[in-house]
Amino acid sequence: MWWNELIDPASASGLPQGRIHDEAYVSPQARIIGAVSIGARTRICPGAHIEGPVVIAEDCLIGNNTMIRGSTRIDSGVQIGFSSEVKNAIIERNVTIGPQCFVANSKIEIGSYLGAQVRTSNHRLDKRTVWVEVGDMLIDTGREKLGCLVGANSRIGVQVVILPGRIVAPASMFAPRITIEKNLPAGRYRIRQQIESF
Q1: CA 182 → CA 32, 77, 148, 165, distances in Å?
Q2: For residue 5, what are the β-bridge partners?
Q3: Cα 17 from Cα 41, distance rounded (Å)
């Protein structure tokens, strides 16, 4: 069950806790609090706020004014755009997260791309626990907060919202402004619109 990986992904990374590599660059205008590990050649831009436990591997770019907190693991080659927030998440290798995104209590698998202002909703408005559909089963995770699983090499367009507990199939593509309300088979999805002059 993928959500069980989110319990403490930072400590499970195998990387040393609370160590900033000599070849990493952390802007003097960035703020690092608690147990934060940063790998070689990773760049932390001005205004970033990182509050551990957080592990960021090598060759990453953490954009201006980005917030990373909770127990979060960011693997190598990840790029996160300005003013995004990532918390209690696993971000696998070579993922790109665009500017002003919110990624919480979620797992984003290798090679995926999230356009600007993508939102992973992580709690239900009725305050009930989050259920996840796995095959033909509906499983109560027992969690009040749970985001989503984005499968490997998926492409998520600008301003897409993913509802709690949803699974995006690997190699799927969602065009801008879609709300992902249910699990769908791998494919390409867009909203049909009609524009009229008047």
Answers
A1: 37, 30, 11, 9
A2: none
A3: 17
